[in-house]
Amino acid sequence: MCSCFSLKTPVTRNPGGRTGIMGRGALTKLGANMMMDLVLTRWRNMDRSTLQFLAIWDQSHKSWALPGGPVQSEGLLPVVLQMMMGRQLYKKVQEKMEEGTKVFEGYVDDARNTDNSWVEATILTIHLDRTDPLMTNINHMVANSRGSMEVVEWQEVSGKTQLCAHQKDSLRRVAELHNRKF
């Protein structure tokens, strides 16, 4: 009797190293789980003194987060954003993606990572002009979110912003793009 075994399928290995947890854990599949975070920015006022970004209150973590989530394929916004924004606003933001700048793409150190499943994120920033018609729609969404389960608000781009580590690093990169201190 042989005590050895063979695997017929290749084992996926976390490129960030071992975590001590096998399987897919809280992620949807083995291997890379693609996520996209969207950093929508604007100037708070006409003198361009303060750069702001759109933040969502993450009820499960009791903290602010960038809008985003899992994506099925590159070039598409996360479906969870459609639920938050509504179909028409989602389509308008989707159309603006070509004007966006990719600030990060790759492996992310995430608490959900396991030895066999991990998060890879694309962070896209889109700067909105105050006169853009899309701003009216987003500001309407922000005003209507107060008192609801999904609170959305404009916050200052700052090193004091409370976000998870990889999102905070992405926000720092966005500040650099706009020549702002972080």
UniProtKB/TrEMBL annotation:
GO molecular function: ADP-ribose diphosphatase activity
Record-linked InterPro entries: NUDT9
Key words, A-Z: Receptor
Protein name from the UniProt record: Transient receptor potential cation channel subfamily M member 2
